[in-house]
Amino acid sequence: MEKVLTLYSGPQCHLCEQAKALLYPVLHEEGWQLHEVNIATDEQLQSLYGIRIPVVVTPDGREKGWPFSAGQVRRLLNIHNNY
To answer: What's the per-residue H, E or C state across the chain?
Structure first.
């Protein structure tokens, strides 16, 4: 399974910018990539994540909504690595 963490975000979302600033160093250290998805153009994603963004999702579907810490993201990634 690929090591790509998905970030659901939106336009002009200051919390999303904070999340990316936290995520990039952690993902770099762990050898993961970030795939950002802007929910603004997809009604289904808006209904799922609209009031919850930013939300990160692992390749196996586990989610963590904001606020999250670097430690929580590391644990999420390491749990994925152990599957």
So the answer is: CCCEEEEEECCCCHHHHHHHHHHHHHHHHHCCEEEEEEHHHCHHHHHHHCCCCCEEECCCCCEEECCCCHHHHHHHHHHHHCC
Q: How far apart are CA 14 and CA 74, in angstroms?
A: 22
Please give the average per-residue pLDDT across 49-61, as a whole number: 95
Q: Please report how the helices 70-81 and 14-30 are oriented relative to each other, as an axis angle in degrees rounded to 10.
A: 50
CA dihedral 64, 25, 19, 69 (to 10 degrees): 50
Tokens 């289904």 sit on residue: 44
pTM assigned to the model? 0.92
